[in-house]
Amino acid sequence: MDDQEMQLKVKRVTDKFTESMYVLANEPSVALYRLQEHVRRSLPELVQHKSDMQSWEEQSQGAIYTVEYACSAVKSMTNSSLYFKSIEGLLRQTISIKDQINNTQGRRKRTVEPAVSKEVVDKHGSGI
Predict the structure, then answer these.
(1) Which of 23, 31, 77, 90 has CA 20 to 30 A from 16's CA?
(2) What is 56-95 written as a DSSP string?
(3) pLDDT tens digits for 13-51?
(4) Under DSSP, is residue 128 helix (H, G, I), strand (E, B) or coil?
């Protein structure tokens, strides 16, 4: 029986010792110390991640603005086909008016040139 009593006492002591160690390891001050240790180790990395994310956000905002601006430019170009057709019509009209002006000036020169050449011949022929 001595042996069984001894084993029972050893078991009680080890159980109490284990319980004490558990309480000591999980004491609030130890928990706060471990939390502080964890924050101290992980905070610089978290700060770097935050900085990287802010930089990526700025870059993506710039890219989004560029894409939106390009889309609006393309949309306005598709809506401008009406204006291009109007410009094409005006250019055709201008070319036709220019041709008409050239034709009338050509006729005038033909009618004026024979009269001028008669005057030149008359002046040179008469000795003046």
Answers:
(1) 31
(2) HHHHHHHHHHHHHHHHHHHHHHHHTHHHHHHHHHHHHHHH
(3) 999 989 888 877 777 777 788 888 999 999 999 999 999
(4) coil
Rounded to whole angstroms, the Cα distance separating 92 from 128 reads 51
Q: How far apart (Å, rounded) are the C-alpha atoms in residues 26 and 127?
A: 136
Contacting residues for 30 by C-beta, under 8 A, at least 6 apart: 24
**N-term to C-term CA, the chain:** 168
Evaluate whether 24 touches 30 at the Cβ level (below 8 Å): yes
Q: How far is CA 63 from CA 19, 54, 57, 75, 86, in A?
A: 60, 14, 10, 18, 35
Contact 15, 9 (CB under 8 A): no
Q: 127: alpha, beta or left, given left = phi > 0 and alpha = psi -120 to 50?
A: left
Structure tokens at 99: 């041709």
Span 91-102, pLDDT tens digits: 999 999 999 999
